Amino acid sequence: MQDMTLGTLIAVFEEMFGRGLFWGMAAAALLVTGAYLYVLVRDRAMSMHKFLWAQISMPFGAVAAVAFVLWITRSGLRDIGGPVDVIALLGVAAMGAVGIAILVYTAQSLARPLVRRPRA
To answer: What pLDDT is recorded for position 1?
Structure first.
């Protein structure tokens, strides 16, 4: 790999996950991001109660993301070859944690919209 371009990264991810799964995950990420932006604009405020539950879900998202990548690549933790692999798995875990937090917050907000109470 001579150059790291967007096309190269897409080709690598398509090869790693398969074309259908990769584009399905990309579409799901766009859908959840759009719904999250809709919720933020609609509510004009963040609910700290919903945000707390979103944060509590983060470790589960991190573990699930790492397990998913290890399952898709047909490898295990014993196949970690060095520091770069650890950094890559930490990156996957971070993305999984943030992704599940956004998903949980958005799902809660769509299920139970923010209730504004009149000021006294």
So the answer is: 58
Q: Domain-by-domain residue ranges, the chain?
A: 6-111
Taking the mean position of all CA atoms in its chain, how far away is CA 51?
Answer: 15
Looking at the chain, the number of H-run helices and the number of E-run strands are 5, 0
d(CA 104, CA 57): 7
Q: What is each CA distance from 90 to 18, 78, 84, 112, 118, in whole angstroms?
A: 22, 15, 10, 33, 45
* DSSP conformation class of 112: S
At residue 13, the pLDDT reads 86
pLDDT of residue 47: 86
pTM for the model stands at: 0.82
